[in-house]
Amino acid sequence: MSQIDYGQTAEDHQAFLILVRHTGQHLCNRSFNRAWERIRKLNCIAIPGQKRVAWVRYKRTYSKENNEWGDFQAHRKVLGLVSIGQCTNSDQFEELFDNYRKVKEEYASTLFNSRLFVFGMNTDGSPLSDEEKENCNLETGEKSSSGSSRSGKSSPVHSEDSGVTPDLSPTEAGNDCDLTKTDAETDSNVNKPTSAISSRVEQKSAQQQKQSDLKPESESNVEQNDNENVSKSGASNEPPTSQPHSNSTKTESNSSASSEPATSRPHSNSLTKESAGAEVLFSPGLQACIDLEEKVKDFVTSIFFVLEGKRLDRSFERADKMQLLCAPFEKKDYVGLDTDTKSYRKKCQGRLRKHLGDLCLQAGIPGEAILHYQTAIDILRPVNDWLWIGACFEGICSASVIVRFPKSQTPTLRRNFSLQATRGTSMANDTKLRTGSIKTSYSNGYQDQEESPKSALGPDDIVEKYREALVHYSKFKGSGMIEMEACLKACRVLVVQRKYLQASDFLQNVVYINLQTSDEDKINRYCTLSQLYAQIGFRRKAAFFKRIAAMQCVSPQNPQPNWKLCHSLVMQCLDGYNICLDPKDVPTDCVYGWPVLQSRVLNELIFSARRTGNIPVAIRHLGMLLHTLFDILTTEDKRDLINTLQTLTAKSEGTTAPLALDSGVILPPIPLSNIPQVTSFKLIPLPPHLQPIKVASKVVKQDTGPFIFTPLSLGQQEVQSKTHVDFSWVECDMCEVQLQVCNPLPDELSIQQMSLMTDGVEIEAYPTSPTIPAESGPSLVKILSRPRSSGDLCILGYTTHLLGMRSQCRLRDLPELRDLRTTVTVIPALPQITLTASLPKVATFTTVGDGANVVTSGTTSIYAGQSKECMITIRNTSNQPVEKITVSLDCHPDQKEMQSKVFQWSQENLDAQLPLQPSGLVCFTVCIYGYSDFLSSKSSRDGSQSSEHSNPDEYDSKCVESLLRVEYSGGPGLEAGYCRHCAVAFSVDILPSVIFHSWEALPSESPDHCVLAFDVCNVCSQQVEMQYNIDDSFKLEPKQIRRLTIQIEKCKFPDPAPELDVADRLQMTKPPPPTISHYSQHLDGFIHILWSMCGTKSCGKMATEHLTWSQQQLELIKVSDVSWNVSVNDQSCSAYSIPVVCTGKVVNIEILITFRAGVSYTSAGLAVSCGLLTDHTSGHSRDIDLVTVLGSQSYQLTNLRHCILLA
């Protein structure tokens, strides 16, 4: 069965077909592939002495059925054979030569010349010595005696042709590799004399001589004519090895070889020339054969001259000797046909003309070939020879393409022919330009074209003639192969012309051609269609045929399904269906592609990967399906896919590492971001009492120069503000990220593990394992972590382990979460403390200041004037020492003075207990005082209200709330300048106890004392006992008012504080609070009024600092500027010491006047009087009239001094 060449192009009509075969079993595949690569590059060879070039197409396999089509189209005929083998002795050479001869006999009907390249022997044909063998093995890196190195398959090649046709399906490449496989080992220990090799080769040459004598007369005549033409056409310029063999040369070789003695016979060259017709070429190794390319050039040149002779011979062939050229399927139709008819002779003549056009095209004369094709059409049209007329049209199209599109023979610029010249030869001699097509050659390989011949078809005519050729081919059932190849050639021509729609018409015709071919051929056909559709931009149709080829690999009729190739072909069609391997390339804002088709293709990928046994790849494809097409799946589809995923992951866990396929394609990891769906991703700041706070630096900044303002934004701070959150985390503290997740699956979703992906600071992760109900709304998931160092921590995303598959979901790949701020600053470690208070905790309180830092609370009820203690305990619960603790009161500024009297503590006592080591305790006492002014709302602050005619007012209790703030730090955080704040919330209810209803100052009997009288009222609901003057006390019933008097020594008041000036008052936003009189504050230290409640055992002290004293009262209270001492008969006279005198005796009274320091008077008046006189005998007091005063009772004093004594 003929095999279709899906890689043929229109330019192949001008190329020689040379078969390159791997001969023998001793040459490893690697060496053959290297030789093949060197040979296949020689696709365009300049002919010495000619202005033409020979185009060559190399094949490693070619069927005999295809070779039979050589009469119909000359470029399908194998014109040359190059066999490459290896041997080390005569026995191996005999086996190698037998294989070579069999291949040559197979294609003997069309071969012009052949070569056998033998590696492993000297150039003269003698075996290599052991040292030469070792050197040869070192050069090639192979061991000739190792069968294992030859048993492996050869490396795949890109194309079987010489670079003209790059289209090859994967199966063709695989078949080529299989055909070059060798399994036998060589025998390196055999060393036979060279005469044995000579005799065997001479015998084989004699056999070939007999076979050539038995050839048909027509073939022998053609060979003789060809050889004669070669000898006539400048054969003197051709090297001896490039001359084509003939019968005469073989005879001469045999005779000369037999006349030489066996012992001195040169093996290689003389043997080749005389015995084998210049066919066998020896070389120690492939690398040692530096002239391999040159020998191949000579070989191609010899074929060219044989072809040129055949062309000239056919040009002058007589009409009576013309033979009818037939296509293979036509031979049976002409059996027994009358040959002596006009139509028969017309067919012979027209077909010969067409064949002559093929030869002209191969000989590099496309213009002359077009003329022959047109003549053949004119001859064949009257006899309705439609098949050959179609071949003529195709030939005209090929010749026109060669002329008009010389650059279409390779997809890239070809090297200049001068660069292929060998070392030591003239570049000018080897550079030959083809006439009629090339004008100028540039250094980069691009070649200008001359004006095309007038006989060449235009671009549109080429397409039209191709259509006519296809119409004629379609009339014959046996020409399906030719029709299909013509469609492909026409398509490639239209691709060069960029006429893509017309090219699609020809490709569509390929689909309609029905041929009974093998499954492998069908796969190649669909792959070729896919490649061509991709070239014309039909991506989806290209993917369709690639997918059909994949399905053909595993069709039920295929006895050997190839699931691996099926998977590879489906992978190649992903781009046509807009299926991206990388989930980052999938757009999320629109529908990309055809979801139903994409789902079907991905399911086929999953199934084919499972059949190949590649479970990780199947899991990766399944994850891609769930990631990209989850929204279009039905509930049953989702459930089936999840069950399939669980089944696959039970065999092999889905990883996050990229997977590499055999084709080199990398499958990136697929994140299951849809399962579960994350709707919110939020970094949670530390609790307020644990948040780090920057300590204000007390260092005075040095003046570094003038301040320069600029409105320009440098960008760094702006970028940082867009990525950083507005809070910080602390090293070694537990940090939290909250996610709102939804379960879109119809079943309950159990996540085995869910943690964070971070960059920058190393963290200790604490994964969570949530369970989300089926088709539920947002559920809160908390992920905890602990930073291990300080710096910038970037949260990249989250990782999940569910359904046996691990996923790494990055926030930048999620459209709704990509703009979040996910970078947080981690500061050095800080200690943590806990606060406990001895008072009961308060249920609710109205916070003052920042109440978020409150960690504990305390509440109590006290009476006005009562004091109570609260023990505060600080425990260090961290691994860092607490080196600094500062306690302050957080309250409103206008209440700060008042609350500072309610709450009091000792900072010095607290500092003495530092540093606080881990797990240590620190205690300090807070004294709570029931601060009050002890006044009713209607009491007059000057105390003028009468105590007899007024009732006590209602006195309400008041609540005092305040925060006791504790600022602490230590460890690395203190060095970095950070601290933490926590607070204790206090709620104190101050209940009324006793109030001052009125008060006044009275003179005392002693001039240096005064009496203070207070009317107190019991405003509480219990009996109160009042204590004053150390030993005086009385009891007060509720709402009872009683007076108490206290005699105090007159006071010397300090100077008052300076008042605020006008500027300070204007700067105040609020009016200043009422200040306590410094007189009252000073008197409060001399007045001690205590109260106690018998029922509650509560006691307290009444403060008088809020009482206001009038000026007259202050005059009585404060010390006078002048003081005096009166003595009677040298006895001091005072209210507590009254002198006793006798009646009728003179009493001497002395008065000592003293002025207070700082007081100065210029004059003063003194008057002395006597009040009452007490008679001790009767016990009654008498008036002053019973006392006679001797002298004046008043004095006018001048020239005053500090102290004056009067008698």
Structure description:
It is a single chain. The chain has 1207 residues and is of the alpha+beta class. The chain has 7 domains: 176 residues, Rossmann fold (3-Layer(aba) Sandwich); 153 residues, Serine Threonine Protein Phosphatase 5, Tetratricopeptide repeat (Alpha Horseshoe); 152 residues, Serine Threonine Protein Phosphatase 5, Tetratricopeptide repeat, CATH 1.25.40; 124 residues, Immunoglobulin-like; 138 residues, Immunoglobulins (Immunoglobulin-like, Sandwich); 104 residues, Sandwich (Immunoglobulin-like); 79 residues, no CATH class. Helix content is 31%, strand content 22%. It is built from 31 helices and 42 strands. Strand 39 and strand 40 form a beta hairpin. Helix 13 packs antiparallel against helix 14, helix 22 runs antiparallel to helix 23 and helix 23 packs antiparallel against helix 24. About 16% of the residues have low confidence. Pfam families: Ig_TRAPPC9-Trs120_1st, TPR_TRAPPC9-Trs120, TRAPPC9-Trs120.
In short:
By secondary structure, this protein is an alpha+beta fold. The chain contains 31 helices and 42 strands.
Write the SSE topology.
Layout: E1 15-22, H1 29-40, E2 44-46, E3 53-59, H2 64-67, E4 78-86, H3 90-106, E5 113-119, H4 130-140, H5 148-151, H6 170-179, H7 194-213, H8 217-232, H9 247-259, H10 269-274, E6 280-283, H11 292-315, H12 342-362, H13 366-380, H14 386-404, H15 427-430, H16 459-473, H17 480-497, H18 500-512, H19 519-535, H20 539-553, H21 563-572, H22 595-611, H23 615-628, H24 635-651, E7 659-660, E8 666-667, E9 677-684, E10 693-694, H25 716-723, E11 724-730, E12 735-742, E13 749-760, E14 763-766, E15 771-772, E16 779-787, E17 791-802, E18 805-810, E19 823-827, E20 833-837, E21 854-863, E22 867-876, E23 884-890, H26 896-902, E24 903-904, H27 907-911, E25 921-929, E26 958-969, H28 971-975, E27 978-991, E28 994-1003, E29 1009-1018, E30 1024-1028, E31 1032-1036, E32 1041-1049, H29 1062-1067, H30 1078-1083, E33 1089-1093, E34 1098-1102, H31 1111-1117, E35 1122-1128, E36 1131-1133, E37 1149-1155, E38 1163-1167, E39 1173-1174, E40 1181-1182, E41 1194-1198, E42 1203-1206
Helix pairs in contact: 3-7, 7-9, 8-11, 11-12, 12-13, 12-14, 13-14, 14-16, 16-17, 17-18, 19-20, 20-21, 21-22, 22-23, 23-24
